[in-house]
């Protein structure tokens, strides 16, 4: 069976991580997103006013591209961004592993967030294909297309703070973590890498929250979005913090001490170091937190803030998600 490894390079503030993907021989930099299941790209079908700075996929220049007549797609993300377009099939290679006849969704329209994010040429979804948005027939993700060719039906994420990391497909590289991998069973019925998260700790003090929302492992989200009462409890321990609607969330004096925050991955509490829980500066003395409220959406979203501190295993063979220290 095959294995593959690809670099994940951070954008400013580690807001997102981009990886090179070859589609019909054309290389684009895509955001690998375990929180969605569409592989879509900036394409020559977009208005040129929207593609400045991006690499676009040109189906007419790929000898292996096949149009999927009549198929369309339309996706919107938790941050309000979105895109839509039509569909074809092509050979898609990542780190030397090629999925043949992979559904490739060509954007004919993208929201302003994507137009201005010139480093991002599209997304590669790594959630479960039951939430793919292609109509009339849902399409498989790249991972599900290639899974049977892999040494093991899994992939791992090693994202780093302000440095390049890796995604590995088909194997767990033991040099990338220390200690045990702590697994939680995944409920994939909603299409996400979803698990229970019924406790947390703040500054070493553990709280159980039987009513806490389930969580998803989402490499496409920058922050850690936790239930509203948990976010409140955390920032109650941060001097000078406030929930500032103009800034879009909790901010605090950069000089304040941030307590460690433990998140439950099933029965295991992964402790995130307070010193790594500041996301960005709002101004020279005010900081924006990496932990924010999910506005009681009913789902907790564990994004890159977690992946920067823990090595992660997405195990489709056993339908489980695991983390390990690194
Ligand atoms: C573009 C994009 C992807 C995601 C996470 N699934 N978000 C929040 N935004």
Structural account:
The protein has helices spanning about 110-115, 140-145, 230-235, 305; strands spanning about 5-10, 15-25, 25-35, 40, 65-75, 80-95, 95-110, 120-125, 155-160, 165-170, 180-185, 195, 200, 205-210, 215, 225, 240-245, 250-255, 260-265, 270, 280, 285-290, 290-295, 300, 310-315, 320-325. The chain is about 5% helix and about 45% strand. A 6-stranded mixed β-barrel has the order 2-3-8-4-7-6. A 5-stranded mixed beta sheet has the order 12-15-24-16-23. The radius of gyration is 20 Å and the shape is globular. With about 325 residues, the chain is mainly β. The longest helix has 8 residues, at about 230-235. The protein starts with a strand and ends with a strand. Bound molecules: 1-(1,3-dimethyl-1H-pyrazol-5-yl)methanamine.
Break the fold down into its secondary structure elements and pairings.
Layout: E1 4-10, E2 17-23, E3 26-33, E4 39-41, E5 66-76, E6 82-94, E7 97-110, H1 112-116, E8 122-125, H2 142-146, E9 154-160, E10 163-169, E11 178-185, E12 194-195, E13 199-202, E14 205-208, E15 215-217, E16 224-226, H3 228-235, E17 242-244, E18 249-253, E19 261-265, E20 268-272, E21 278-281, E22 286-289, E23 291-293, E24 300-302, H4 304-307, E25 310-315, E26 320-325
Parallel strand pairs: 3-8, 4-7, 15-24, 16-23
Antiparallel strand pairs: 1-2, 1-10, 2-3, 2-6, 4-8, 5-6, 6-7, 9-10, 9-25, 11-26, 12-15, 13-14, 13-19, 16-24, 17-18, 18-22, 19-20, 21-22, 25-26
The chain binds 1-(1,3-dimethyl-1H-pyrazol-5-yl)methanamine.
């Amino acid at each position: 069976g095959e294995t593959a490894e690809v670099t994940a390079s951070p954008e400013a503030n580690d807001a997102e991580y981009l990886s090179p993907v070859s589609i019909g021989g054309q290389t684009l930099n895509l955001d690998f997103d375990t929180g969605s299941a569409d592989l879509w790209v900036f394409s020559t079908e977009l208005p040129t006013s929207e593609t400045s700075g991006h690499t676009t996929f040109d189906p007419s220049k790929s000898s292996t591209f096949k149009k999927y007549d009549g198929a369309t797609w339309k996706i919107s993300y938790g941050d309000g961004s979105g895109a839509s377009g039509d569909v074809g099939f092509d050979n898609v290679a990542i780190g030397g592993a090629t999925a043949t006849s992979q559904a490739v969704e060509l954007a004919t329209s993208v929201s302003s967030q994507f137009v201005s994010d010139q480093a991002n040429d599209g997304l590669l979804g790594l959630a479960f294909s039951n939430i793919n948005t292609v109509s009339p027939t849902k399409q498989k993700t790249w991972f599900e297309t290639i899974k049977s060719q892999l040494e093991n039906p899994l992939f791992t994420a090693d994202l780093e703070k302000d440095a390049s990391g890796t995604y590995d497909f088909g194997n767990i590289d033991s040099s990338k973590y220390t200690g045990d991998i702590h697994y939680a069973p995944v409920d994939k019925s909603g299409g996400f890498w979803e698990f229970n998260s019924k406790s947390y700790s703040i500054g070493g003090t553990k709280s159980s929250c039987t009513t806490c929302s389930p969580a998803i492992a989402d490499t496409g989200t920058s922050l850690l979005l936790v239930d509203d009462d948990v976010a409140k409890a955390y920032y109650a321990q941060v001097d000078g913090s406030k929930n500032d609607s103009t800034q879009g969330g909790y901010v605090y004096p950069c000089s304040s001490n941030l307590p460690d925050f433990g998140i439950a991955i099933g029965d295991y509490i992964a402790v995130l170091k307070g010193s790594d829980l500041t996301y960005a500066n709002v101004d020279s003395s005010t900081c924006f937190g990496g932990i924010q409220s999910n506005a009681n959406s009913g789902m907790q979203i564990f994004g890159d803030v977690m992946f920067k501190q823990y090595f992660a295993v997405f195990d489709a063979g056993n339908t489980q998600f695991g983390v390990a220290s690194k």
